[in-house]
Every structure is written in C-alpha cells, then in structure tokens.
Design goal:
The complex is a heterodimer of chains A (421) and B (269). Chain A folds into three domains: 2-65, no CATH class; 82-189, no CATH class; 204-414, MetI-like fold, CATH 1.10.3720.10. In chain A, helix 4 packs antiparallel against helix 9 (330-367), helix 4 (223-254) packs across helix 10 (373-382) and helix 9 runs parallel beside helix 10 (373-382). With 421 residues, chain A is an alpha+beta fold. In chain A, strand 7 and strand 8 (175-179) form a beta hairpin. In chain A, strands 3-2-1-5-6 form a five-stranded mixed β-sheet, with no helix packed on it. Chain A has a four-stranded antiparallel β-sheet with strand order 4-9-8-7, with no helix packed on it. The longest helix of chain A has 38 residues, at 330-367. Chain A contains eleven helices and nine strands. Chain A has helices spanning 2-20, 49-65, 203-216, 223-254, 256-269, 278-285, 289-313, 317-325, 330-367, 373-382, 386-414; strands at 82-91, 97-107, 128-133, 138-140, 155-159, 162-163, 169-172, 175-179, 185-189. Chain B is α/β, with parallel strands linked by helices and 269 residues long. In chain B, strands 6-7-8-3-9-10 form a six-stranded mixed β-sheet, sandwiched between helices. A four-stranded antiparallel β-sheet of chain B has the order 2-1-4-5, with helices on one face. Chain B is globular and about 60 Å long. Chain B starts with a strand and ends with a helix. Classes of the chains: A alpha+beta (421), B alpha/beta (269). Chain A binds chain B through residues 316, 318-319, 321-329, 332, 336-337, 340-341, 343, 415-417, 420-421, and chain B through 55-57, 74-77, 79-81, 83-84, 86-91, 100-101, 104-105, 132, 134, 148-149, 152, 154, 158.
Amino acid sequence: MTILIIYIVIFVASFFVVRFGVRKFRQMKDFTSLKTVTFGDESAVRPDRWASVISVVTVFLLWGAFTGSKWVPIHAPGPFIGETSFTYTLEGPDGATDDATVYARVFEVGQDVDPAEVDAGDGFAKNDSIAVGAWRSDLILMDRNDEVTRKDGAKVIAIDGQAVNPGDTVRVADGTVAITSKGSLNFAPAKGMQMEPIWLPPPEAVVARVGEIASEGYQNFTLWEHLYWSLFRVIVGFFFGALVGIPLGYAMGLSDWFRGWFDPIVEFMRPVPPLALIPLVIIWAGIGETGKIILLFLAALWIMTISARAGVSGVAISKVHAAYSLGASKWQLMRYVIMPNSLPEIFTGARVAMGVCWGTVVAAELVAAEKGAGMMIMVASRFQLTDIVIMGIILIGVIGYGIDILMRKAETWLVPWKGRV
Amino acid sequence: MSALTIDKVSMRFDLPNGGHVQALKDVSLELQSGELMSVLGPSGCGKTTLLNIVAGFLAPTDGQIVLNGHQVTGPDAERGMVFQQGALFEWMSVRDNVSFGPRMKGQKRAEYEGNVNHLLDVVGLKDFKEKAVYELSGGMQQRVALARCLANDPDVILMDEPLGALDALTREKMQGLVLKLWKETGKTIILITHSVEEALLLGERLLVMAPRPGRIHKEYRLPFADEGVGKDLREVKKNPEFGERREEILSMIWDMEEEIMGRTEEADA
C-alpha cells in the first residue's frame, strides 16, 4: 500500500516537474505540437520519453529502496538490528509481583550470534537473554529460570507496564511481544518496511547471480546454455511450424478440397491453448527435446496456417485479374502476386507465433525439462533462490522483447509496403 | 476488319433464394480495329459485367466473344485491362510493374527495357522508375497502370472506370493522355465511365446501356475524340454540339434512373 502511494506520488510529481520545468527548455515546434485539438486525436499522443525513462528508473529505485540495496541512496526503514530489551511483570500465586527484563540481540539472518550474557537480577523473576534473526521471532520461556514458574501458578500480567492477557500483542521499544494462550512470550523485532531477501532480493544480488550463473552455471548448465536451449527449441519448433503451416495455408486458400478438409481441424486446434497439450506431449514424447519441439511446432503451426490462408484470401481480385490479363500463368500468379501479397499477413502471424512459442517453451520447461530458462527458475523457486527466479524472469522478458523487435525490423525490411497500400 | 465481335451475349446469375438476375440480354456489338468506344449507363446496367466477359473473367451464359477470328474463353495477354485502382503490385517498383507482362512472357531485360523506358517517358514517369508504387499519387499510379497495360502490347484495352478515383484536374489531364495514347498506338479501346462528359470526350463511339435486363439502349458516333487529340479538352467542351449531346444523354440516363426508382416503388407497394 505504501509502495503504491509512493509510486503514484512519483508519477504525479515527475509529470509536473517535466511538464513545467524541463519542457520549457526543449520546446518543439513540429506539426503535431502545433495542433490545438489533441485530446481525442490518437495520432497526437506520442509517448513522452521522459516519462518512459522516469518510469523505468522509478521501478528500480523502489525495488532498491525496499530491499535495502547498496546502489540506492535512500531506503525504506529496514528491520531493527542490534540490542534491545523489554520488561515483563510476573505475578506469583500469592499475588506478589516482580519485574524482570528480557535482553534481545537482533542479528542479520545468516550470522551466528549467541545471546548476550546478562545478570539474572534479583526478585523471584529473573532476567532473560535471547538472540533473534531479523524478520524472525522467538518464543521466550521467560519463567524457565524464574523461582516461581507458570506450573506453580505464576503468570505474566504486564509488559513494559502495559497490562496483558493471554492472546494479546503489545508494542515494545523495537518490536512487538505477543503473549500466547499458554502464557509464554513471543518477541518479534520490528520488521521495518523492507522486503526480506528470500521474498525479494536487492538488485545487486540479482546482478551478482547473473555473473555467478553465467560463469559457474546452475543445475549442470550455464546460464547461456539454459537460454540457448530455450531459444533453440523456439526457433526449431517455429521453423517446422512455418514450414508446414505456410504451404498448408496456401493450399487452404487456393483449393476447395484442402479448405474443406483442413477447416475443421484448424478451427478446432486454433482455440486449444498449446499449454493444454503439454501433458499429452509428455506422455507421447517424454520430457526431452523431441517433446518440446513437437509442442512448439503445434503452437506455431495453426497460427502460421491461418495467417497464410488469410494472406491468400486477402489478395484483391483486381490484382489477380490484372496479372492474368497481362499474360501470367497460374504458377506465375502464385510466384509474383499471391506469395508477395500474403507476406504482410504471414509476418503478422510469425510475430504472434514467435511470442506464443516463447511463452509456451517457458511453460513447458516449468513443467518438466532438463535444461532451459523455465526449468532454471522452477528449480530455483523450490530452493527459495528468489534472486535466480527474478533474474530468469527478467532475462525471459528481455529475450521475448528482443524477438519481437527483430521480427518488426525484418518486417519493415522485407515488406516495406505493409500498411501503406 | 472487325476486330472484336460481341455476339448475342447474355448473362444470367442464379440467386441463392431461387430467383435470378438477368445482367445482360442479347448484347451484340462489333468493334473495328483501332476504335475507341466509351460505355455509359445507370448503375446496374451490366457494363462492368460486359467488360469482365470480354476480358474473359466471366463466361457468358449465352452468346460468344470473338477476337481476331477466335473465341474468347479466358483472360489473355491480347486483352489488357486497366482497373479503377488498387491493381498495381506494391511489392514491385514502377519499372517492374510496367515490365510485368513482358517478363511473364519470358523476355530478357534487354528485349523489353527500351519499350518500357519509352512508355514511362510517354506517361511522364521517367524519373520515377525505381520508386515504389505506394509512394506515388493516385494519378501517377493510374499512369503506371496504363503504361503496364501498353507494355504488354495487347490488341484490345479494356478500361473499367480508370479515372473514376481521381480529382477533377488530374482527371482532365489523364483524359488528354488517354486520347494521345489511343492515337499513337492505334489500340482498340473499350472504356467504361460514370461521367457523361468523359464518355463524350473519349468516345469515338458511345454506347448507352439500359438496365433490367442489361442491354444496349442507344449508340452514338461522335467527333469529339478525334477533335480532342492533342488539344485543350476544355475547348472541345465549349462546342455547342458537345453541350447538346451532354444534355440529351444526361436526360436519357435520368429517365432510366427514374424508371428504376418507379419500378422499385411499385414493387414496394
């Protein structure tokens, strides 16, 4: 909740700073900036690059600030670490009361720390000493060393002077103390507002993991091998899907019989999510490469078939007539008119298919695999290695984005007339 | 010599609901080699259907088309076609569009290049050879379409409202170009249009068609196309005879349109 509020505040504040501060120094006078009607004119809405940069920086700042990153100068309050203490009041069966102090030493998880040596003090309640990890809590059997224990009928009636009953929780100097139904105390040091590394590691831990896994590997394969295998499966599966799907789509676009024969199959298979095929593919082909490639082949096949069919059906009849009346044969019509005319549709299909294949391969690897990006994050999550999981998610996202950019570049290079006819 | 014979051509489409449409009924016509005929008529009179039958895209239900002594059974390079728009190949440069016909015949570049360059020069696109067609304006695209058709050296050129999508100024320039190309090449041309003025200006013969069923209503022989070659077409329009003809044909088409409306109203009532 706090994070959301901070995020909104940054969003609004940077808007005003950029709009009324920075913008004055870089006023542009191009055609769009001179439009008076901009609200409702979609073409006048261009992404503000300042907003994009600030947006990305904000995500990393928040991530760093709430994980105690060394790379970020400001931090959300962290968990309490150090020495603290609180007092409890024990009431004996005879109604006599005595105070004793619990000394707590709160340390960073991972270190080996012993409780401090403390003087037991006087009275029938004796002082205690505990060591607690940050973000953890510790159950204190405070009467273990007391002269009158709970078995004798003693009970804790107050903590730091605040009266308590079993089941209550009270604040003390650096944390909270809960009194259990059986009357023992549970001390939880203040957690602050930062995330614990096992939930969300700081950015530098993730970067360090990238270096470590890139050089040493994880689960018998280096990072690059994991990513390479995922990409390899996508490319091979997509390649075969296109190899079969495009001619099939052409055949469906050009022949009644093919259209009739394959229409029910394609229309049935298209809405089946490739992920639903994973169990069947594993039964048939196991968890090795063959199974993955069959799955990706099936994921790409229908998309490519439908886009090739749409590309053929989308050819303007006047172009076909023109080609025939210029003396083209059927084969020449196919080669010089139908194939180039279908390229924009096929490219759109290929972009979609690559995206679907990339998603499917990661999901298939999550289910079962020996190597691959999905397998890497799945195994890491079982061992609570959140930094590897986050690293994997970021790399999967970067690669998916990269694939889409490459496909778009190829599109503008190979079909420059797309959308300009 | 009669180059193109349209012999009692009828066209009847069956409709899914069991009825049928008589798009053309007993249309007969002879065109001499080198004649330029414009075709005019209210919408639904079957002029585009007739053109598609001559081009070989549709088979008539009755009658036949005979060109140079043989029957037309399908599209062929001897009958070139210019469409209203959108029939250029966007994936080819202007030059590749124009040389499409010769290339499909298997001609080598050396064989066709001279003619293609000459035609691009004639239509005024010498400097746009390597441009992509989607970079050209509408008028330029239609000039490419004309050059593409001529590069194939067809016997008959069929034009289906080739200037219909152009603005008035470009259209007038293109009308002059069509006349010029007609005189220079001596091609037989059938031109369909919606514009009475265009039909009068460009038609050596002018065919007015009537709808339901599509048939020839009246035919004119006009002097304006010959007069107009190489001249300012606005001068031709000032000719009082031109004005008379225009009024005559316009009222004829108006009457036909009103008759259709009347019949539709009767059917509705």
